[in-house]
Write a structure and sequence with these properties.
- The complex is a heterodimer of chains A (121) and B (216).
- Chain A is built from four helices and no strands.
- By secondary structure, chain A is an all-alpha fold.
- Chain A folds into two domains: 58 residues; 57 residues.
- The longest helix of chain A is centred in the middle third of the chain and has 25 residues.
- Chain A is flat and about 55 Å long.
- The relative contact order of chain A is 0.06.
- Chain B has 216 residues and is mainly α.
- Chain B has a single domain, classed as Cytochrome c oxidase, subunit III, four-helix bundle (Four Helix Bundle (Hemerythrin (Met), subunit A), Up-down Bundle).
- Helix content of chain B is 75%, strand content 0%.
- In chain B, α1 packs parallel to α6.
Chain lengths: 121, 216
């Protein structure tokens, strides 16, 4: 494997500092209330951090096409997973109200007394 | 090539590969396929989290406030640092620096252990307050769905901790092989692959930290 490409250490050092900085930003952003944007901001920073780890630490930036196909294929499957679950969840409302108690779709969590599991639910 | 005067063991390319390059690329591709599977594996838990957070946002807000974000942030920094020492170990192996590789791997293990120790104290303080997985939940909470959050919390952080434990085992394994002189510029595949695994563990935590500790 002579001639194998070795990534310069400076890349790693910069990525490391960047990741620590972004962690600080995550905590800082959580101190302020942006309303509905809170989750979006937290996830956006997480995606940037994850991309840094993938591209530099895991060397995806220097990988060949098929590795990208594997990884992006996996991510696309996860997005489909989320899409269909939420396509169901977000369009349930009316049916739920009409048929509550019939399908028992939204049965509330049973409050547990004295740390024992409820029997026969 | 050897910087510390120690001897290295020559690597024999397995007979079904054309050359070392092909052997290395094949192994790495296999590891990436495994990681693609790991993403799908964890995705089920992230979907569960998303469903219940969507249904019961107030309960998630309350449950999350019961966690110590300081411990979570500290552990995030610990894992990121361990990822850095891991790439440095891989880099040292690539440049045939045996002692440096060994030391960086050792630091990575110590950081992993530190992560688990913090996690242990976190779990214990939750148990102390009666915060157990749902069926055994015995704490005061305003919202009825708070136990659901902790059900997800214990499963997902527990599985993540299991990955860390496995990672520690793998790093010990490559440390022993490093000490024997098996890894050098011509062969460092296991170090590279364990490195990839370790970064994946870091990757999961990068998402877990804001989702579990910083709801709000």
């Amino acid at each position: 494997m002579s001639g194998h490409f070795i990534i310069p250490v400076s890349y790693y050092v910069k990525t490391f500092i960047g990741l620590l900085f972004l962690t600080f930003i995550t905590v800082l952003a959580a101190q302020f209330d942006f309303g509905a944007l809170n989750l979006t901001i937290a996830l956006l920073i997480a995606v940037v951090k994850a991309s840094l780890v993938l591209l530099i630490f895991m060397g995806l930036r220097w990988e060949k096409g098929f590795t990208w196909v594997l990884l992006l294929g996996s991510v696309v499957c996860v997005l489909i997973f989320f899409f269909f679950v939420f396509a169901d969840l977000m369009t349930r409302g009316a049916i739920d109200i009409e048929e509550a108690g019939f399908h028992d779709l939204k049965s509330p969590v049973i409050k547990i007394e004295k740390g024992h599991a409820p029997t026969g639910h | 090539m050897a910087t510390t005067g120690t001897s290295f063991i020559k690597h024999e390319v397995a007979h079904h590969f054309d050359n070392a390059e092909q052997e290395f690329e094949s192994a790495k591709l296999g590891m990436w396929a495994f990681m693609a599977q790991e993403i799908l594996f964890f995705s089920a838990l992230f979907v569960a989290y998303a469903i219940f957070r969507y249904l019961y946002p107030e309960a998630f807000l309350e449950a999350s406030s019961l966690l110590s974000w300081k411990m979570g942030a500290f552990n995030t920094a610990v894992l990121i640092t361990s990822s850095f020492t891991m790439v440095m170990a891989v880099n040292s192996a690539q440049t045939s620096q045996k002692k440096k590789t060994f030391n960086f791997l050792l630091v990575t293990i110590l950081l992993a252990a530190l992560f688990l120790v913090v996690k242990y104290f976190e779990y214990m303080s939750k148990f102390h307050h009666g915060i157990f997985p749902p069926n055994y939940f015995n704490a005061m909470a305003v919202f009825e769905q708070v136990p659901i959050f902790f059900g997800i919390y214990f499963v997902i952080t527990g599985l993540h901790a299991l990955h860390i434990l496995i990672g520690i085992g793998l790093i010990i394994w490559i440390m022993r092989r490093t000490a024997r002189g098996e890894f050098h510029a011509d062969y460092f595949t296991p170090v590279e692959l364990v490195g990839l695994y370790w970064h994946f563990v870091d990757l999961v935590w990068i998402f877990l930290f804001p989702l579990l500790y910083l709801v709000g």
